[in-house]
Structure prediction request, 229 residues.
Amino acid sequence: MKKPVLAVIEDESDIQEMVAFNFQKAGYGVHGARDGLNGLRLVKRLMPDLVILDLMLPDMDGREVCRQLKADKGTRLIPIMMLTALAGEADRIVGFELGADDYLTKPFSPRELVLRAQAILRRTQEPPLDNKTVCVGRLLIDPERHRVEFDGQPIRLTATEFRLLHYLASTPGKIHSREYLLDLVWGYSYKGYSRTVDTHVRRLRDKLGAAQDYIETVRGAGYRIREGL
Prediction:
């Protein structure tokens, strides 16, 4: 089995060494960069399975690195986990809105970091539980081609956004709690992280444009795809 490859973009040498040590011990190949510009070059050259990206970097911060990676057709599907000392909800939301797949604040447990990375890789490398094309109203979701269309026009989604939409659309009318979606789509159910789902749903709605009302918020319960579209 091919060893997963990670790119770690982190300017603090002790953190980079700690991250590299723990992932190498878990069987990963690890390559590092100490600033944003070299990190961007590393990812484009290496095409890793996952990027672990610090927000506060010299010369080009992590937000800009993330933005450029997600805007590039060649790298936009590579999952990104952001690391930051900024623990506020607004900072977490900014990371997700740029397309990050997960977000971990410093200081963090190395074990949690590895487990969260493993969850990201599982959900982005494995096909959805049901790999069939789903049509809801004028929305088409094709897992085999990783393609979403509305009225025949393509909509670009990250791997996590795609997975979230596919799960919801596969069961129109069924309410999914935040906790259930967090476990099913993200692969973990840590207390306090259910708002991650809200942020991704908000970003997903923005990308769906005219189809954004297909996703219904059920107050106090969760989310569902509307029936009868």
Observations:
- The longest strand covers residues 5-9.
- The first helix runs from residue 13 to 25.
